[in-house]
């Protein structure tokens, strides 16, 4: 195996933290990936037959999804059948030595296997257990199956995506899963801090997909509570804040955010509309919202005959926030991404290199880094089991019985 080149020789922020990941696909594994990027030792448990389904999602190169290469970097893979008594016994032994357990099974699955919180915390009182599920571990919906897209719908996001009167659309990525994962990471770090300050006792972090989405919905609920107002989809505009929209140019689209009072004046001056720049009624956001169609029309008319590059050049000179709509090609070719280490060339265990997203957030004292490439299924099974004191003969016998792979 060829390990990826480290970004830094500084100490890892989470060095010494031991994590067991029982998740699959997106939410749980993304949370564990984030911890791993900052130095946590992550042991990922996968089913021996096929492994994590993400290995085969979207575009495949040399038999493995390129998505897998970023989602599972810095992890160890143990192919272990948790449906067997032997497999669950090994999992318990791993959890007994861990700081964190990440799982995103449907609620009740681990309990049915004798691996619920009561059992695991008795085994390891310092354990921090991150549980990500569709609806949480409690409540009337807890047993319903829930994926990220359902969380996006129930959390209020899907109602707002798209054009007015048209079908709600997804934002193009599994944002519900990722938001849940990031909330889970926050919860883990909070629980670890509390554990350190309060005698070493662990706890459960219960993250529901829809709640993670709902938590970022800004003033959606207060507006309904105070005014009975139900926010509706608005396409590319930002309702109640003007001007902020997408405008068609001769060769594409540009986003313009001219909603600050002084920025608005500079924007209008730059597009030759001094009449709007000097209109006292438009000096505040309230006045601009009342005439948003007129303002959007003025910006749109100015952008229409110009190229995206030409529009951005003029608005940059006027210090107006504006940008093009990036594709993957635009990102890959942008020097700012590369200057900030946000595009890494990562070796794979399949023998090729692939460009992957860099590490966020950027800690200047203890930056994250790629220590190893994404594992093949069960690459680390023997080494991890040997670390538990299991002999080569025992490992061979379990492999023969299909408990491990």
UniProtKB/TrEMBL annotation:
GO terms for molecular function: transferase activity. Gene3D superfamilies: Crotonobetainyl-coa:carnitine coa-transferase, domain 1, formyl-coa transferase, domain 3. It comes from the Bacteria. InterPro entries: CoA-transferase_III, CoA-Trfase_fam_III, CoA-Trfase_III_dom3_sf, CoA-Trfase_III_dom_1_sf. Keywords: Transferase. This is CaiB/BaiF CoA transferase family protein. It comes from Derxia gummosa DSM 723.
């Amino acid at each position: 195996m060829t390990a990826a080149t480290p970004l830094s020789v500084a100490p890892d922020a989470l060095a010494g933290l031991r994590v067991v990941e029982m998740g699959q696909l997106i939410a749980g594994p993304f949370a564990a990936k984030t911890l791993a990027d900052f130095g946590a030792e992550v042991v990922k448990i996968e089913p021996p037959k096929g492994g994590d389904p993400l290995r085969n999602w979207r575009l495949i190169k040399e038999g493995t999804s390129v998505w897998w290469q970023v989602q599972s970097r810095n992890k160890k893979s143990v192919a272990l059948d948790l449906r067997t008594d032997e497999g669950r016994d090994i999992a318990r032994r791993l959890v007994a030595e861990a700081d964190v357990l990440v799982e995103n099974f449907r609620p009740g699955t681990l309990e049915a296997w004798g691996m619920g919180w009561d059992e695991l915390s008795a085994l390891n009182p310092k354990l921090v257990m991150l549980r990500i599920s569709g609806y949480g571990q409690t409540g009337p919906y807890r047993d319903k199956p829930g994926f990220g897209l359902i969380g996006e719908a129930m959390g209020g996001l899907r109602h707002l995506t798209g054009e007015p009167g048209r079908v709600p659309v997804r934002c193009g990525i599994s944002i519900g899963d990722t938001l849940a994962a990031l909330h889970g990471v926050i919860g883990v770090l909070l629980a670890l801090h509390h554990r350190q300050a309060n005698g070493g006792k662990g706890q459960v972090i219960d993250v529901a997909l829809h709640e993670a989405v709902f938590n970022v919905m800004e003033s959606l609920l207060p507006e309904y509570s105070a005014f009975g107002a139900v926010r509706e989809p608005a396409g590319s505009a930002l309702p109640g804040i003007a001007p902020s929209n997408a405008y068609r140019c001769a060769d594409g689209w540009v986003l313009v955010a001219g909603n600050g009072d002084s920025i608005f004046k500079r924007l209008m001056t730059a597009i030759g509309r001094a009449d709007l720049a000097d209109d006292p009624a438009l000096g505040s956001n309230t006045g601009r919202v009342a005439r948003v169609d007129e303002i959007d029309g003025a910006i749109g008319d100015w952008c229409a005959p110009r190229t995206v590059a030409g529009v951005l050049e003029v608005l940059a000179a006027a210090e107006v926030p504006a940008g093009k709509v990036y594709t993957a090609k635009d990102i890959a070719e942008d020097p700012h991404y590369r200057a900030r280490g946000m595009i890494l060339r990562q070796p794979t265990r399949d023998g090729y290199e692939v460009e992957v997203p860099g590490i966020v957030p950027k800690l200047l004292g203890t930056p994250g880094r790629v220590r190893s490439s994404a594992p093949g299924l069960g690459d680390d099974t023997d080494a991890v089991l040997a670390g538990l004191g299991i002999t080569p003969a025992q490992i061979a016998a379990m492999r023969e019985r299909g408990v491990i792979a």
